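[agent] plan:
  1. take the single chain provided in the ticket
  2. run structure prediction with default settings
  3. attach structure tokens to the ticket
  4. add a short note for the reviewer (M.T.)
[agent] executing step 1
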Amino acid sequence: MKKRTIGIFNGALAAASYGTNPLFALPLYAAGIGVNSVLFYRYVLAVIIYGIWLKFVKKISLKISYKQFVPILFLGLFFSLSSLTLFSAFKYIEAGIACTILFIYPVLVALIMALFFKEKITKTVIFSIILTSIGVVLLYKGKSGIDLNLHGVAIVFTSALLYALYIVGVKNIKTIKHIRPTVLSFYVMLCGLLVYIYNLKFCTQLQPLDRPVLWLYAIGLSVIPTIISLETITIAIKIIGSTTTALLGALEPLTAIFFGVLFFHEQLTLRIIIGVILILLGVFLIILRKKHRAAE
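[agent] step 2 finished; step 3 output follows
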């Protein structure tokens, strides 16, 4: 399998796995578990499970230098705060429209790469951004006539910017360039955990999971949209670059649509079908670009 194909596969898998977030998180919220507690369990279980897997099963050394740890600390905070700000925005605007606005992050990635790293924004990239953005907007099924809360929109924009900075950083920070994606992902999760330890007053305000089924949801949340998603997106960024990986993120809402139809009996309307087609066209344009370009 060619290197670029591996990168695209991992980027698509990262988006699809990250799209399962609601499948595991919503039952925890419904049980009365707060955002900070849910995200704490997500990260702490991910660190424990992944750490055991890497150290004792794969026999991979987790040793890094201080020079490498400092930028990883910031990447972990960016990644973690992106999740926290997105979930916080749900208090002000509908979850569906918040996730739609969040998809501005591929545009932010392209702009950051162009402004600070002299990356050329090609016509294909611009057209792909337009197609996928329109497609994502069409997937949103909000109430007609709803007024947007500007505070909520600002919080989502902050989430998108933090996620964009994370994606750009993984590719362009020289001191972490040669760290294995698995090790980088482990430390990003470990550093991200610090946010929730602090927010929960060093876990004194942590809400307990008092039923076995809640632990199952928490484990699912830590494995699929966290461990799998984070490792595969790190691999993709290193192979195909930040902009291409960000655009493959358009597959995330498709995962949500799939699970909505499969588990929550949501209907496929003509508008949603058109949205799906536009997203797929935008993604395929990126995939079918000149394959000799290993990264943008």
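[agent] step 4 note for reviewer: The chain has one domain: 3-287.
[agent] ticket updated
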